[in-house]
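Marked as duplicate of an earlier ticket. Keeping the data here for the record.
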Amino acid sequence: MLNWFSRNARDLPWRQTRDPYAIWISEIMLQQTQVKTVLPYWERWMKNLPAIKSLARAKPETVLKLWEGLGYYTRARNLQKAAKTIEENHGGIFPENFDEVLALPGIGPYTAGAICSIAFDQPTPILDGNVMRVLTRIYGIEGDPREPKTNRTLWNLSEALVKIAARRQETLMASCSALNQSLMELGALVCTPRQPKCPECPVQKHCVALREGKVQLLPEIAERAPATKRHFVAFVVERKGRFLVRQRPEAIVNALLWEFPNLERNDSTSFSENEFFRIAKDALPICSIKHSITRYRMTLDAFRATLRPRKKFGPGKWLSIPELRELPFASAHRQILDHLARRIPPPRLQSSN
């Protein structure tokens, strides 16, 4: 595994450092997100917020703007909460103790183990989706890996492997950091969910699933519940070159992000019965966006509209397109803004003559 990793590991920027802050940011960004998507986000984040202190003291809007488009925005808010905790309780220095790392907001056992092993070379186990798949296949472990009994078996295996690496560190033959990263990398590049590259696997001779013809059957992950469809209508309202937007409240999905006024449409309710159409007129379709959040598959239809005289549509701000560009938007509403910006030319500069 280690020999294979030394020859095949991807050249990723967070692998060029042992800075726990940089590694922590990468691990949080990589949760449910592909490496190719994370790369530009990580680089921009580290340029703007290069240290714990800068993250702890940043404006929440700045943090969300840097995260804009990655989704699961609770991750970004927890990063800032954790940075403030490190400033207050650890003197601004990232803790090395596993339990102290685990106690930080937004950090679970996998992330704590990854940070402690990669940054500090400690014998802490890891178990993300890639490692789970690799261990399940190599050891031929049946049962849903998310069920408590099977999950504990996999954690125990991960712990046993990293402890072996720790013991061999004394002879310079291994490291906890390299061992854990090799497990993750093998799952990402070779032992993939579909069409795994078994002939290229460095541990194929030890793989129970390959020997027993069960590679495609493991891991035995239970089918997810069918996705729920939801339909929303957003309204792009203009007044003197400015557009009405509002900020989502705290403690809900996409909290504190900005969006155009919108309402969920019940399929049994016609547009004419919708609240907005009692206070707006001349609503014309401009685009339709499909997106997903967790188990929901959503359609967002956007309309250009004008308010009827002396009518208001809840709280919000009237902002120009350049001002809107500075705000962190929910992903689907960012697409509406991009669509809008392409259709509206920038203001002409006044001639100095």
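See parent ticket for discussion. The longest strand covers residues 280-293.
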